[in-house]
Amino acid sequence: MGRGKSINLFLMDGTATGRIKCTLANWTGVAYKIPRTELEKCKERDDLKQSGVYFLFGISDQLGDNVAYIGQAGARKNGEGILYRLQEHKRNPDKDYWTEAVVFTTSNNSFGPTEISYLENRFCKMALIANRYKMQNGNDPTPGNITEEKESELEEFIDYAKIVMGTLGHRIFEPIDASSSLINVVDPAEDREPVLHLQTNKAKATGKRTNEVVRCQEIGPKKLKILTVTDKANSQ
Predict the structure, then answer these.
(1) Residue 10 half-sphere exposure toward CB, CA atoms < 13 A
(2) Of the candidates 127, 58, 126, the residue with the CA atom closest to the CA atom of residue 95
(3) pLDDT: is 103 or 218 the higher one?
(4) CA distance linking residue 33 with residue 47, whole number of Å
(5) Taking the model in full, what pTM does it have?
(6) CA nearest to 122, candidates 165, 60, 181
(7) Tens digit of pLDDT for each residue in 93-135?
(8) Beta 196-199 vs 134-135: how paired, if at all?
(9) Helix (H) or strand (E) holding 24
(10) 72 near 120, Cβ under 8 Å?
(11) CB 106 within 8 A of CB 164
């Protein structure tokens, strides 16, 4: 059984649908959840002028799928950083799909080009493996060259970021693939949910009840499209 975590959520606008600042005990990271319509309110925040990694979340106009884009922003000589990059995306008609951003930076301004390149690469790979969102990244980000000590430090940052991201309503790093959730059980003795089986002359399926609502829609005799209702709600 995992240890409990103490997470601080600050509702910056006094509402659950506004801007949210998230921190954890013993973590130098800082996360922000910012609705697209509230970007202008963040102009005076110094930590959003730093380097960091950001996520853009929305829904595809064509298919109605959850979509996401992951990018990095370095601090510029003119004092602009993450927020300036988000404002550029807001003005870009090719990225009209996103409705909110999640930003990761640090309280001590310790991220440089090497750190944000590594984090962007790892976050993209994790999101692609989870396959819960349609990724809008056109290029595969490079991880850069880091020492093993720095890699260990950044992997610890990623562990905390995964917790924060789920807390902020986006399960982008958690696979929805049933086979993954059935196989990767840490302790079978603690997993009390029965595995369900269905087999006909045309199909064979295995499933298990989880803590999220999933709807399966048949789109052909041999294929099902899995729609996660909880993620749809979070993106709207």
Answers:
(1) 8
(2) 58
(3) 103
(4) 14
(5) 0.78
(6) 165
(7) 888 899 999 999 999 999 999 999 999 999 999 999 999 999 9
(8) unpaired
(9) strand 20-24
(10) yes
(11) no
User: How far is the CA of 102 from the CAs of 48, 72, 163, 227, in angstroms?
Assistant: 11, 12, 13, 22
Contact 52, 103 (CB under 8 A): yes
Tens of pLDDT, residues 138-160: 887 888 889 999 999 999 999 99
Which one-letter DSSP state was computed for residue 58?
A: E
- Contact in structure between 50 and 95 (CB atoms under 8 Å): no
Domain spans in the chain, listed from the N-terminal domain onward: 7-167, 178-235
Burial of 165 (0-12, 13-18, 19+ CB in 10 A): buried
User: Measuring CA to CA, which residue among 104, 115, 112, 123 is closest to residue 21?
Assistant: 104
Name the residue type at position 38. E
What are the φ/ψ torsions at residue 177 (nearest 5 degrees)? -60, 120
Is residue 67 within 8 Å of residue 37, measured between CB atoms? no
SS3 content of the chain, % helix, strand, coil (to 5): 35, 30, 40
Q: List CB contacts of 230: < 8 A, sequence separation 6 or more.
A: 171, 212, 213
* CB-count exposure of residue 135 (10 Å: 0-12, 13-18, 19+): middle
How many other β-carbons are positioned within 10 Å of the β-carbon of residue 178? Answer: 18
Instruction: For residues 73 and 41, give the distance between their C-alpha atoms in angstroms, rounded to a whole number.
Output: 19
